[in-house]
Queue: 3 jobs
Job 1
Amino acid sequence: MQLLKVEENGTAKLYFLSSALWFVLGALEGITAATGLVIPDLFGGIAGLVFSRVRPMHTTTMIFGFAGTALLGGAHYIVPSVLRTSLWSERLGKVSLWVWNLSILTGLVALDLGHSQGREYAEWIWPANVGILLAFALMFVNMLQTAANRQEKIMYVSTWYIFAALVYTWLIYFFGHAVFNMKGAITGLPDAILAWFYGHGIVGLFLTPLAIAIAYYIVPRVARSPIYSHVLSLVGFWTILVIYTHIGAHHILQAPIPVWLKTMAVSGSIAMVIPVFTVLVNLWLTMRDRLGLFHADIGGRFVTAGLVWYILTATQGTIQALPVVQRVTHLNNWVIAHSHIGVFGFSGMIALGGLYYMLPRITGKPLYSGRLADVQYWLLVLGMAGFFMVLTAGGLVQGHAWLNGTTVYRTLPMIHIYFIVRAAVGLLIIGAAFIGAYNVIRTIRGEQAQDERIFGEVFQGDPQ
């Protein structure tokens, strides 16, 4: 079958293509939801376009469809590359891709029809969740067999993060989505605890390890220098696995959950500075005195931007976990700003960096248009900066109004202008999504724009 055609790095290529297409859909869902906040009656009550359905469609499309799919594409390229072998089964890899895409589509269609578990980031119905778990299992088997057949004895740090992401994500997805219960979510505080054990973990134990794996792969190659410290990579890896698993409860500090769990969540959130800044210091010291190389390489430039957003995401996340700060920031647009820079600014930018760095090496030809990739980069930088500022400002207005006793309906007129600006900024993201999809499709077809300035060099062989 053509869909399961065996070709070198064919699995990674199709993951990247799928990500580019999901990005377009996710951006359209986002602008639909944002416009609905500005003009609530715009869609005339059409069930499939109401905010309560489109918003979870947007978040899950961006997490799994766009960022997650691109990061998994990078994983399918990195593991064979650093282990000096071929992917154990390209056919199995493509099976996992189609199971993955079909599961995402099933979840999104169900949400649009009103079928949801009603839990943050864990809204998909049971069949979609089973499909996602099956896809992860297939990926793990493929990666494990690839590692068993490796020619390189040393397991580079990127492979650690990739295997950890596959194992941890399977476990938190199973429990967080209550897959053991075919009827969907369970009830009461246990459900809230499980939901946020998953809700925070899907960012920190799925997107983050895969993004770090790509950064550890690309940064030394663009810098043309070995990683600064193997010891720091060990510290960063083990501390994130130990600390991140239990901090999701800081989202429900106001709920009557056990005090010991609240204490663990807050203290763990503060302790996250250890793995985050260990990784960042290691990568920045690898990059020092070589920033010109990253400016010249479009993939390296996206990764650099993602690492900058990682600093902001981690710093803000630690601060907002403090109970005294949550008095102002809890349940308002401050948190939405944080989720945008975490999923999109950090993970999404690094995912695109992996795509633009690896795709020319997969096809053996340069990008269709380096200029278009450059335009997409600046649209996303400006768009993410706009999202962060307007949502943070709107959240502070909301939080202080509520703290002073202002009712919700009196607060809405205060933040209406922020919703308008947010929707306007979203147009930059939509433009970036369409530009990226066009560039990726033309690159995979082996085409080259005329009068094109090439960003970086065509793949001739990576240092191992």
Note: The domain at 2-444 is CATH 1.20.210.10 (Cytochrome C Oxidase; Chain A).
Job 2
Amino acid sequence: MNILNLFKVAFKAVANNKMRSFLSMLGIIIGVAAVIVMMAIGQGSKESIRSELSTMGTNLLTIRPGADMRGGVRQDPSSMQTLKMEDYERIIAEKKLVTNVSPEVTSAGQVIYGNMNTNTTLYGESAEYLDIKQWVIEDGECFTEEDIKKSAKVCVVGKTIVDELFGEGADAIGKNIRFKSIPFRIVGVLKSKGYNSWGMDQDNVMIAPYTTVMKRVAAQTYFSSIVCSAITEELSDDAIDELTQILRQNHKIKDESGDSDDFTIRSQAEMMETMSSTMDTVTLILGVAAGFSLLVAGIGIMNIMLVSVTERTKEIGLRMALGATGLVISLQFFIESVLISLTGALIGVLIGVGIGDGLIPMMGMPSSVPFWSIALSFAVCTVIGVVFGYIPARKAANMDPIEAIRHE
């Protein structure tokens, strides 16, 4: 049994029926390309989200009000007023595993300059907020602790607000704008961050001292949240434990009472893991959906090979009469089936990689072709070639040589 000769015979048989072989490969080509493109979109989206979350600081910790029971009814966390100035001051005084801390108060509304206006979100923060969120001042400076003590009407704005109110490239430092009729003097302009994966404009932001927003804009004595940064990402869990103990003591929540916390603490790393898990699930669903086309393609290959066996019955009979065993005949059709599958896989990989690394990024979508998706495609196509080539190969091997030669 000459394996090399069997490959030559199989290759010649495929080449002699170019159109039929191509139509057999078409399902494999489309299936492999679809799998690679789906994996590329899923992986690219996952990496893009992780990258954007990383720019906010992988050691970021966010404390928010937690749901609570009032009169037997569970309250919405957003309506709770459990984070007070005393909590912020105690965290500042007792923190060991946390570096920067900023209380947060937010308000959405319209910002106006002259006859120009735009909608934005005003964030009331401490001066440490820019370090926590890794914002960079491009022009001017940030407000100071003195501004916070005096509840000064000063602010730092993003590029979008500057462009909308003053025109692109204008100097906004020292200009007075109004938010809900309250005047604010611009002391700094943030470096542009652009849009994130969710289509949110990260430059459409206005940051002012939290005392100013609490007293002059929101008229409230509690915080929407408190954001912190752990010393390192590795110490995030320990920092969460530390903050939990501080807040439980401050809120007089006793461990032995079994009362639940009236606050929640989430780390950026936890959010990244959640988003990654979600994207992995979405990618898997997309991959499975695309993979069904490979199953259909395998059935198509089996049908074509069965037709080929029927058409070449006389050839099979002659080969058997000349001494070819059933194993040799079976291997020949196995090789043809696998050859069609792998050739289709190769073309599908070239198309899939071309779309994943070329066309999709040109459309402004995140994409990253993982190598394992290419390897998986070849492995699946090899299995398809073997599995769906088995029945035609067995049919050819079980033929009676005399009946095969007589076949017309």
Note: The two ends are 28 Å apart (CA to CA).
Job 3
Amino acid sequence: MLELQFLGAAQEVTGSCYLLRVAGYQLLVECGLIQGTPEDEARNSQSFPFDIDSIDAVVLTHSHLDHSGRLPLLAKAGFNGPIYTHHASADLCKILLKDSGYLNEREVEWQNRKRQRKHLPLIEPLYTMADAALVMDQFVPLDYGVETEILPGVKIRLNDAGHILGSSIVEMWLSDEGVTRKLVFSGDLGHRGAPILRDPVVIKQADLVLMESTYGDRDHRSWDETWDELEQVLLNAQHDKGIIMIPSFAVGRTQELLYAFNLNYDKWQLDRWAIFLDSPMAIEATEVYSKHRELYDRETRNLQRHNGNPFALPNLHISRSADDSMAINQIRSGAIVIAGSGMCSGGRIKHHFKHNIWRRNCHVLIVGFQARGTLGRLLVDGAKQINLWGEEVSVSAKIHTIGGFSAHAGRASLLEWYGQFEGHPPLALVHGEPQAIEPLAEQVKAQGVGQLIIPKLGDRLDLVHMQQI
């Protein structure tokens, strides 16, 4: 049997999870958190739609929680097999999963205080920091470009996806009863020309390609336009004498911002600002980025040789503790605050919003994708009021969306990457909302794809005959 089942990121962006059945073995590719509205996130607590004991291995493309975030839950439920991923992804998962466990514990602690007052049964966290630490023992780190047999009849090879540090395009060969099929999982493909990392590796051959489609409906601004836009926001904010708040993903986006600030320090007059990195997780992630210099692109290696650490700035303040963070809120002007979470759904950025988002001379820079149902998406969509811990707060700060900073490939890059496969192999579009998938699907059809699959949650695919079951 060679079969693929789509158990996540099917016509949605989060919760990536694919189940493969091969010659009596079963493995998962990804085991990600579902993110978005409270209703969406409640699905994380539901039982996995498979027998945990039947899973022999997991392959992980990268460390972002929408790909890795249910791994501690999987292990907690009884999975004790290997988890294959790149070395840098394993290092970052150690940070991200621990933080996710911490947030779970804090959220449940808060909920249980309310439940106690109402004499309601107490609830347990999805998983804890201890659960997150335990699952790390199951990680098997791999290098790029090395073919590895992970199960009888299953071989994989990781290739640089250019999305975040350690992100991988996975080539996978599946064999059973004399039939072999090669699948290629794009994971999340990087934005061509992005700072720090190399561009996604081109793969030539596949029997089936699973390609992300997060930005299948649009292209990003050029990097030159992005830098110009960011510079203009900084200059305008300087004139307004307020605070700039940047909700930023701890992994990837934060390092790109610091790199851009380093590269343009004089041009953007950044010496006039106090810059705060107010995220313990982002601080740790930046240390991992500094460790894995072998993964940098040529430009970043050159910057490192001439300027030293590409993420260091003379006026960068590292805010590790809660007291450090609270002290920032005494500053009324001249500060740039980079804080999590990237979609504004939690973390220290919400505290900075509470102190500043109602001020007309302040600015918010949105520098990443904002999923449906998140606070960040509300801001992008023009909300005039937001709810912070039960209090309605006016949004008077200027909201700027710097879309060119995306770590995901835009439509043209997705089409180009797929177009380099020989013979237009069957293509499944995943990891995208319907409004992004549909225009990309039309473009792919025009490009000459032979078979196009837009899976729904739970759909199964017979890989021998390449048809849906």
Note: The chain has two domains: 2-218+407-468, 223-405.
